[in-house]
Amino acid sequence: MNNFKVNSFGRGLVTSDGCDNYRGISLLSIAGKILCKVILNRLNTNLLDEIVPESQCGFRKNRGTVDMIFCAIQIQEKCKEQNKDLYILFVDLTKAFDTVSRPGLWCILPRIGIPPKMVQIIRCFHDGMKAGLVNGKEEDDFHVSNGIKQGCVLAATLFSFLFSIMMLSAFKNSDAGIQISYRTNGGVFNLHRLRAKTKVTLALISELLYADDCAIVAHSEHDLQQLADSLSIATKRFGLTISIKKTEMLFQPARGSTASTPKIKIDGKILNCVDSFTYLGSSLSSSNSLDKEISTRIAKANASYGRLQKRVWCDRGLSIETKCAVYKAVVLSALLYGCESWTLYRRHIKLLDQFHQRCLRRIMNIKWFNKVTNVKVLQKAKTQSIDTLLTLSQLRWSGHLVRMSDDRLPKQLFYSELSEGHRLRGRPTLRFKDTLKKSLQNCRIATAQWETTASNRRVWKQLTRKGAAAYEQAKRRAHAEKRAATNAGTESRGSSIPCHCVVASVHLNLDSDPIYGCTDEPPTLVLGWTLSITIVDHIYLEA
């Protein structure tokens, strides 16, 4: 069971002169997978939540990329709101799973409480391991003495144990990071609850982790350099390597800050400072703006739509219902990825809605000259507007935050503010709480008792769906009333036109000079070929 086949897959830009952009996937036997699954269930039940820190959301139950994206955006938002500098270092490890030190892993597992017999079983999967490449044909087997198997169900958990102990040893004596004060009761919209010092809990956030993706946060360049040095030393001790080329940092200055572009070094090499970084598929900007993220989402959704052009959209054998279902599952998922944590302005919603309407009209073959309104397009596709979909997603995620345990990092950030810093005078920028309050009001949910209702998942799900449906219907009624008022205004303006007018029917010749005015006989201009256009309009006559 310690022999396996390796299939290589290209990742990103694939070149033929190296293996940097290739990833090996282990093809294991069924019997080995079953035994590994039994061991994994025991590890997850007894040790995973005790050993792995809360900042790690990779390969854990009830956690996903949205958790860490929300945390990163909330840290950016709160630093901007309270006028504090923010430094984020995005660390990339070179082939993290394939370079794990096995002797170090065998030393760690017994110390965290795994029984010796279970450690021995895990070692049997790795000691004397041989691999063979599958690349169109089978090659000769070779020995593998380092790393863990990508493709094995145990690999992610074993790496999480190693990575957690490494991060603990790196930052155990450090007080650098982002300090927040939070209180999960008293209402999220009531900021005065955080003034009660005896009821507020302090927490220090130094890292955001998802599998081997690591983001380190600090308020100053000195603190970030200290954290980077500690992490660099720890990775070398545990046999891992930081990729200097792919490790980048993002600096979000406070308003009026005089800080220059930071120069963070690892192993004596200065890291690249960028204005935006793609973290777990979401674009984070140094200005805390969602402009680039919205553009990226539209581009990715457009690419998803284009890949299905011939197979789905142009297939006349598929019904409109089937095409719309595929659109919702594939294109809309790419368009609204991570939307739960967005704080959108009207211009962002307009861009998303334009793309939404454009795709639906193409699917249903509705042209502009058919004069079909956006509301009728949504009704025919049996879907909702982007605004309603965003509202529903945010309410669903907010209810999930309320039901989290108090030790969860997303919930702590949701109910928190920075321990340092102050808000500037004037109207603040739009916050996640502001959009949440607006979403609650749109769905006619009381802002005072919404957290009590959200604690019951079934009730909250029903309430948000009914509220979103009512919000969509209210928008459609408002659109119909506005359209009726516009048509009524047009008719009233037409009835008030003075009676001193005639109707002219003009036949235009494109190669002739324009003719102005009106005569008793409509002018007709003749060419070798004739383009006859009849224009019916009101022409006012001078008294």
Q: Could you characterize what this model shows?
A:
By secondary structure, the chain is α+β, with helices and mostly antiparallel strands. It has 17 helices and 18 strands. It is globular and about 85 Å long.
Taking Cα atoms only, what radius of gyration do you get, to the nearest Å?
31 Å
Using DSSP, what is the number of strands?
Answer: 18
Instruction: Please mark out the parts with pLDDT under 50 across 5 or more consecutive residues, or reply none.
Output: 499-543
Helix content: 40-55%
Roughly what is the average pLDDT, rounded to an integer? 85
Number of helices: 17
Main β sheet profile: 5 strands, mixed
DSSP strand content: 5-15%
Question: Termini separation (Å)?
Answer: 102 Å
Order of neighbouring strands in the sheet with most strands: 8-9-3-10-13
Q: What characteristic shape results from the CA principal axes?
A: globular
Structural class from helices and strands? Answer: alpha+beta
Summarize the structure.
By secondary structure, the chain is of the alpha+beta class.
Q: Helices and strands in order, then pairings?
A:
Layout: E1 3-10, E2 22-27, H1 30-46, H2 48-51, H3 65-81, E3 86-91, H4 102-111, H5 116-124, E4 130-133, E5 142-143, H6 155-171, E6 178-182, E7 201-205, E8 207-210, E9 213-218, H7 221-237, E10 248-252, E11 265-266, E12 269-270, E13 272-274, E14 276-279, E15 282-285, H8 291-307, H9 309-313, H10 320-335, H11 346-363, H12 374-381, H13 386-403, H14 409-414, E16 416-418, H15 432-442, H16 450-454, H17 457-495, E17 501-503, E18 538-540
